[in-house]
Amino acid sequence: MPQLNPNPWFLIMLASWLTFSFIIQPKLLSFTNTNTPSNKTPTTKTTPWTWPWT
């Protein structure tokens, strides 16, 4: 069965993993968010939910 032979596929997987981790990932992590999250106080709802079947 050719699926069990790791000879060509292991090098392809290793090359793609190294390409992603050393070239693509630092480029993606260098992007900054345009909208930084702000500290908002959570609003609490004081009225309980009324279920129509109760």
From TrEMBL:
Going by the UniProt record, its keywords in alphabetical order are:
ATP synthesis, CF(0), Hydrogen ion transport, Ion transport, Membrane, Mitochondrion, Transmembrane, Transmembrane helix, Transport
Q: Which GO terms describe its molecular function?
A: proton transmembrane transporter activity
| UniProt main location, coarse | mitochondrion
Cleavable signal peptide: none
Membrane topology label: Single-pass membrane protein
Task: Provide the transmembrane region boundaries.
Answer: 6-24
Instruction: List the record's Gene Ontology CC terms alphabetically.
Output: mitochondrial membrane; proton-transporting ATP synthase complex
Q: Where is this region: Disordered?
A: 35-54
Family (UniProt): Belongs to the ATPase protein 8 family.
Q: What is this protein called?
A: ATP synthase complex subunit 8
Please tell me the species this chain comes from.
Haematopus ostralegus (Eurasian oystercatcher)
The coding gene here is: ATP8
